[in-house]
Amino acid sequence: MSLLIKNGRIITSSDDYIADIYIENEKIKQIGMGLSVKADQTIDATGKLIFPGGIDPHVHLDMPFMGTFSSDNYETGTGAALFGGTTMVIDFILQTQGKSLYDALKEWKGRSDGNAVGDYSFHMAVTDFNENTKAEIKDLIEKEGITSFKTFMAYKGALMIDDRQMVGLMNEVKKQGGMVTTHATNGDMIDYLVAKHRGEGKLSPLYHYLSQPEITEAEASGRFSDMAFQTGVTAYIVHMTCEGAHNHVRDAARRNQKVYAETCIQYLVLDASLYDKGFESAKWVMSPPLREKKDQASLWAGINQGSVQVVATDHCPFKWEQKKLGENDFSKIPNGHPAIEHRMELLFSEGVHKGKISLNKFVEVSSTNTAKIFGMYPRKGCISPGSDADLVIFDPNKQHTLSAKTHHMNCDYSGYEGWKVTGKCETVILRGEVAIQNNKLLVKKGYGQFIKRNKTTGII
Question: Between 3.40.50.10240, 3.20.20.140, 2.40.30.20, 3.90.550.10, what CATH number should domain 54-373 receive?
Answer without folding.
Answer: 3.20.20.140
